[in-house]
Structure formats: structure tokens, C-alpha cells
Amino acid sequence: MAKNKIALVTGGSRGLGRNMAINLAKKGIDVLLTYHSNKEEADHVVSTIQALGQHAAAFQFDAGNTKSFDQFIAQITDHLKEQTGQSNFDFLINNAGTALYAPFMDTTEEQFDAVYNIHYKGVFFLTQKALPFINDGGRIINISSGLARFAFPGSSAYGSMKGAVEVLTRYLAKELGPRGIAANVVAPGAIETDFGGGHVRDNKDTNAHIASVTALGRAGVPDDIGGVVAFLCTEEARWINGQRIEVSGGMNL
């Protein structure tokens, strides 16, 4: 009997990451997910995935602290060895992130460094450290943002880091091709979650503005995103590589 494929989803305890993790499980994929501070939410996602008949486990992880990555990789590979007899997995979804809303002129070096460490440096080095344990033929999916394509005032640092991740993804696709590993970007538009303090979900003016500039006439919801990430981990998506897939309902076309 073929072993289940396994995905690692960073920031999988809430919002988009939670939706990705559950949609992966619905495709018959086992899921390791990370959380930053809310173990209770992460455990709830694990229970949901287990109820779907898939294996799941949650691990604490700070995406901005590269010094902790070796220990984190050791933790998940030990867990996998115990569960499956092997320390490898198939899919890495770099989703963990925080928001920063600050005008360019007011963005501090501390804010910039925090966004850089989580959204770019962390993605770069977690992927590098995970690669020896990603099976040949696996997939890497990096989560970007519509804000790398269009500009909303207040997102200069965040949008810039997402732009860097998009370029990095093309390099990953090129360099990892010999191992059959595909790398792609999923770039959500504005989504109603608690991200950034629920900015899109709870601010009526923001929500209405987003709906007005979106071809499909509303802000996005998590269910719009998770299935796309799960699809990219299926055999049907095997020939998609080095691509940026914006999932925004047609924002700012």
C-alpha cells in the first residue's frame, strides 16, 4: 500500500494556513503544521484533520528566528521517523506571516527587520534546511500577496518582501528541477481573516473598497485559497512550475 504524502504548512493554526491544512487533508495528504503561540487553535486544526482520517501534528515555530530552524527541522524529522520510519516529507508550504501597515516614511528599521526575517529570510533558510528532507518529485509553495503586483499605501515593506519571495521561487524552480521538485507562488488578494487585526474582515470601508476594485465583487475568504494550494500538491498540477498564481477574484485588473 502506498504511503500517504506529507505536507508541512507553516502558520497552519489559523486563517489561510488552517484552510490550506484542512484542504490538503481532504486530498488524502497528512499534515504537519506550525503555530507561533496559540497551541489550542493548532490542536483544534489537528483534531479536524484527524477526523478526516489523516495524520496531523502541530509544532511551535517562530518563522522569524532562523537560529531555531535546525532544532525545528530535527523535531519534525524525528516525529516523521517515529510515525513513518522515514524522516522525509513531500510538500513545504511557506505560509507563516504577520502584517505590517505603515507608511513608507514612518516604517522603522525594527519593523523592516521583523518583516524581512519572517517573510523573506525565514522562507529562504527554512526551505534551504528542509530541502534534504523533501522527497524528489515534491513541491514547494510560497505564499505571496497581491501587494507584490499592485501598491496599496502602507504596505511598502511587506509588499517588497513578497516580491523578493516571488523571485526566489523562480530560482528554486530552476535549481531544484533536476530533483523533480516544482516551486510555485500562490498570491492571495485581500482576504477576510484575523490577519493584520482583521483589517479586511472588520473594517467596513476597507471591505467595501476591496469589493469595488475586485472583478468578482467581494473580498476573498479563506475557502477561496486553501483548495488552490492543495491542488498544487496533486498529480494533476505536476507540470505547473515557477509560476505566480494570484487568487484574488480579479483585484485591480
UniProtKB/TrEMBL annotation:
Keyword Plastid: no
GO function term, MF aspect, one: oxidoreductase activity
Pfam family of the protein (one): adh_short_C2
Membrane-crossing segments per the record: none
Keyword Oxidoreductase appears in the UniProt entry: yes
InterPro entries attached to this UniProt entry: NAD(P)-bd_dom_sf (IPR036291), SDR (IPR050259), SDR_fam (IPR002347)
UniProt keyword terms in alphabetical order: NADP, Oxidoreductase
Domain of life of the source: Bacteria
Family: Belongs to the short-chain dehydrogenases/reductases (SDR) family.
Record protein name field: Short-chain dehydrogenase
Record organism: Sphingobacterium athyrii
